[in-house]
Amino acid sequence: MISIKDVKKIFSTKNGKVNAVDNVNLEINEGEIFGVIGYSGAGKSTLIRMLNGLEIPTEGVVSVAGNEVSRIKGASLRKARQEISMIFQHFNLLWSRTVRENIAFPLEIAGVPKKARLERVNELIKLVGLDGREDAYPSQLSGGQKQRVGIARALANNPKVLLCDEATSALDPQTTDSILDLLVDINERLGLTIVLITHEMHVIRKICHRVAVMEGGRIVEIGEVLDVFQKPKEPITKRFVQQVTEPEETKETITHLLSAYPNGQIVQLGFVGGSAEQPLITNLIRHYNVTVNVLQGKISQTQSGSYGTLFIHIDGESDEVTRAIEYIHSQKVGVEVISHA
Ligand code: ADP
Prior knowledge:
Keywords: Amino-acid transport, ATP-binding, Cell membrane, Membrane, Nucleotide-binding, Translocase, Transport. This protein is of the alpha/beta class and 341 residues long. The chain has twelve helices and 13 strands.
């Protein structure tokens, strides 16, 4: 279904050339759920954007559903792109249109007559479980419902391939699971090929058949998800696998911390690049009337920010603690507040 041959993408910037994607070769089978995992800057978005012609490779050939998307342009590319849909981290819905109108939008563009359009929209609404929300506006929907609209819209023209760009990264764990279940359901019912990019290993483990690990524009490891979990070869893969194989250890840590700090809140921070723990903690102490104890965690620093998790304890007046936690939520970190029962 998808073939990527000797593909390179080089961006020229003020500071020189960036090898965003560097010599990638990859075949993805029809009906497969294929995951690409990597930290921020690894080249995942550039790779996925080359699959639907949003980026043209500097070298190499990309074919999707029988169309050489790296070569064609104009009307041929537009036609080829009907086979390839995409969903996004921030949903990219039209805010002034209702659920029904958002889903109908690609059908309108494709020139589908009104009656057929209405029927198709009703079908899609059922498929993604949005019955009763047809006339709501995006601002009236939860994150999970917004992504359901995104998925219905992406499926409107019966594509062969669905690309998911960090599609669950803005959702809480429970909603993430329900969206991932929906993707599996769609994959099984429609035989749709799904390619998803993520920095979260649990997403890969939950739904992917195979996974490629990207670092510095290259695929450094590829295989069946189970094999990669059992025998990760590269250090970076081992780090991703650890993201999800430590829950037991984490549970013990939490029980221990809750008894050690009976007051205030314990917060688990997850860093995935883009920000660092030190400025965040400095800001908390400086701008909020709270005490902050850095408890424990494993953090590694790279040029693009910190990676890992960190437990902190925040204590003070409850309003002030709430404000401090709101501030953390506004930052580029994963946040899990571990409350006292
Ligand atoms: P990821 O999706 O894994 O975070 P990206 O594909 O977004 O990675 O980026 C890979 C590299 O290419 C990064 O160094 C990024 O800064 C660079 N890059 C991406 N898009 C552009 C662009 N349009 N112009 C210049 N550099 C870019």
